[in-house]
Amino acid sequence: MNDPIWLMLVKGVLVFVVLVLLVLFTIWYERRVVAIMQVRPGPNRNGPFGLLQSLADGLKLAFKEDVMPRTADKVVFIAAPVIAVTCAFTAFSVIPFGPEVNVFGVETALQLTDFEVSVLVILACSALGVYGIVLAGWASGSAYSLLGALRAAAQVISYEIALGLAVLAVFFQSQLLSTGAIVEAQAEGLPLTIGSLELTLPGWYFIILAPSFVIFVIAMVGETNRAPFDLPEAESELVAGFATEYSSLKYASFFLAEYVNMVTMSALCVTLFLGGWAAPFPDAWWPAANEGFMPLIWFFAKVLAFLFFYVWLRGTLPRLRYDQFMRLGWKVLVPVSLVWLMVLAAMNIGLDAGNGLTTRIAFAGGAAIVVMALIFFWPSRKQYEEPAEPDAGMGGFPVPPLDLAVPPSPRALKELQPARAAAASDEDAAAATSEKGEA
What we know:
By secondary structure, the chain is mainly alpha-helical. It has one domain (60-377). Helices cover 62% and strands 5% of the residues. The chain is built from 14 helices and four strands. The strands form two sheets. A two-stranded antiparallel sheet has the order 1-2. A two-stranded antiparallel ribbon has the order 3-4. β1 and β2 (106-110) form a beta hairpin. The longest helix has 33 residues, at 5-37. The radius of gyration is 28 Å and the shape is globular. It starts with a helix and ends with a helix.
């Protein structure tokens, strides 16, 4: 891209501002949607419809006391949120918002930058972002934080493989790794002839690569540590996980990085599978729909649809157990992705051999149905075994004592010592009095 320096600076500032505004909106959007699902008002006081609630929460976090544990590694403790935020913002720099437009007499694409391996840059930034989480857990000097960091590392390693395999299918189909070129490759329609009926299907890859699309969506939820895969910061087990010891702006930085990653992964899914900034209808309906700044509307509408999907999952599904989560990644998503890649390669070979596009789409649809059936209906190899002890209502898993008979802490024991000594002396006095009476 041959943009002048001033235009590159303007684009960089605009991308930063758009991401921050999207984060503020997404936080409000999530709270409002979950409130509607739970039949309650949600934020509705600060600003119209409560739109300024996210800004108020951000200012509140900024003015809170900044606390650092004595056992923390100060340099790494401070650097961890910076790494997380930097990787999150960098990944969004190669996402295309629209076609080429005229800005102050300069023809430029609605994209900060693009090159031949842009998709790999996003995957690399997503993988490097976990270093911020891992270093935060290690540098905090807390068992809860360390457990959250270990979970995050295992989670990213597991689901990064499935995510990469889904992207590899897009590369097989388009022979491209540039985000802008992938969007342009999906602009061509797919002619389909059924008897005397001639149709033109959208060239979006979520139709041709349906299994890859489903795998990518599941993996991106696991990659961004969102419910039901929010195990690195499971508040029911690990307080706040890797962020337990953070406060003020450092905690807000992790919050910002999480929501920026949500927006980035949603934008990447739109770019790879849903035509990017292209309008969701044929050009013949509205020839100017994909010209000028109009594609910005289609792009952000698709991104908001995926953000709603994130919120829908959070308001609907319970958190998975960690063993279930790992099993889904390693025993379902990765094997299915590998099988689907082989099927896709066979389809491409068959198309090169002269088979029609109708045959290919039918084959792809049948393969997608078979793959989904294997995912949801594959029988478990482990047979159910009756527990040796009576089930306590939790499926035989170890649970804390239901009567909450937790031994007192050392401080509580120290505070109870005077009272116990007084009670013991009273008992001794009562015993001595009774002995005198008997005598």
